[in-house]
Please model this.
Amino acid sequence: MSRVLVNAGIWIVWMTLAALWTPIVLAAFLATAWWDPGRRVTGRMFRWGSRVLIALNPLWHLTIIGNPPPRRSHPFVVVSNHQSLADVLLLGTLPWEMKWLSKQSNFRVPFIGFMMRLAGDVGVRRDDAESRVKAYQRLREWLDRGVSVIIFPEGTRSRSEEMLPFRNGAFRLAVESRRPVLPLAVSGTRQALEKGSASFGRADAVVRILEPVSVEGLAVREVAHLRDRVREVIDRARRETSQGSDAARRSATAAAPRPPEEPAQLARGSQPSW
Model:
């Protein structure tokens, strides 16, 4: 019952905040869109809400490892593995603006969808070839304006610990636009908000900012090689981070002081008093 109440409380707080945040993002858009073609101000204002939402969730803890690339090196085609719906919020806390490729249904979520449109995020119907073409044209426009874009090349969240195969789209976009790929490795978010569930779980999430991958000199025929190379880099980083976190938890458990047992009570089959 307590978990149900905690989850209900978090959702109520989140939706209330989303309703209150919407006019703030709208005001930012109206005040800056005429001189800010990259909608950086609006986008950052929208994504600042992610930090507030995470701070208001007592079940989540976020660690970011690695340094953001210098501002002069932007824009990038940013790619990340995808474990949970929580990834969108966690990656939204990164300190640079990115336009997101997101499934079209997300733009129908009350308040959130409206703010996504204001920020310039790009919707796509994955089973519609025309929609995919238009979405990638829009992403290319943002890159031409000097704004990074972010794509989950798995296409959807994996239901297991294993990453799904990467699709070509993000890497073709990088090669054709001559923009470097910036890989991100996410770990620890699977239980935060599991696929098909609206229930929050405890999560020690880690986002690792990896080294950019240059596309200089690559031709379109080498997209698959670039895709596989980046996937390997992300998968290795994700596994290393996950193993390190597990080892740290085991170490902390082993080092924790244990209360003395009470043999007489245990022998009678009763629970120890501690």
